[in-house]
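[Automated response] Your request has been received and processed.

Submitted sequence:
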Amino acid sequence: MPFFIVRQDITKMRVDAIVNAANTELREGGGVCGAIFQAAGPARLQAACRQVSPIKTGEAVITPGFDLPAKFVIHAAGPIYHRWKGEQNQKLLRLAYMESLNLALENKCESIAFPLISSGIYGYPKEEALMVALAAIRDFLADHDLEVYLVIFNCSDFVVQSSLMEAVASYIDENYEEAYSDLRRNPVDAERRSMQDSGDIPVSMKSMIDGDGPKHASFRKSIVDQSFPCREASEDQLLDSSFQDLDERIADLDEPFNAALLRLIDAKGKKDAEVYKRANIDRKLFSKIRTGKGYTPGKRTILALAIALELTLDETDDLLKRAGYALSHSQKFDVIVEYFIVTGQYDVFEINEILFKYDQPLLGAG
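Generated structure:
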């Protein structure tokens, strides 16, 4: 099942269980804890908590959700942050997430929403708290199917590694709203421009190459004949070669999206489960994509699959094209994803952190 970061009030999440960043006495507190108590109905939730309290730091217990959209509230006690107890802090915070996730499975939940535990009044640095949360959730999802949300109330509270943010920001500055590289998108034009810049084609000849009419066509033909001296070949040979090349191109273009995807999975030596988990999509959606039957996934799903398969930029372009999509430098989302592909960083969760920070849709189902 996929994992998403969302900006929302956790008390409004329509999931099977939400997690309360609780104190060990399970009493109504401030911040997220207080908001959950008030939305659930404080008297009834407090009465339910009294039956299962107290708990230790790192532990979690479950109660009904009462007036909440969620069926359950899982109360997880995260650690109070102490700088000199870094390893213990991390161990206890991770345990709080893992205990909550296990409780969700035990109670047959299919979806769960977390706040960033311990990052409020307990003082855990937000960047470190996020790293622990992501690592715990990802490790759990590697072996279990559960739809997981990390709920951030305020985007400014979401802190991403500064060096990565700077690198992405620099790439966006250089590429956003600019045309794609001529060398990659229009190799013929790029070759001609390169020849002109190097002096191989005089500037005065450019108008003859680019112009219209019989005179210009004749000139272009003479340039081609000089550049590709294969006059010895017969007309029949040239015709056969042309048709063969055309047939190959048409066959390549006619390959449906799902067939191209399965071919790439085999070529990359990966298994289906590995691909859909790394792509942050669930098994049911992947099965639908795999069988085809007239279904074509959305662009975000295709890009997630490209990341999971560690495709190059050209391979990604080709896969998108088969579904009728393309990357564009006029879209910030596309530029951000392109940065990770060209730099060889194929971690869909890390990409989604950056996309979330830029208020962009996330990779995965869509």
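Summary generated for your ticket: Residues 86-106 form the longest helix (21 residues). The beta strands are 3-7, 17-22, 60-64, 72-77, 111-114, 147-152.
If you did not submit this request, please reply to this message.
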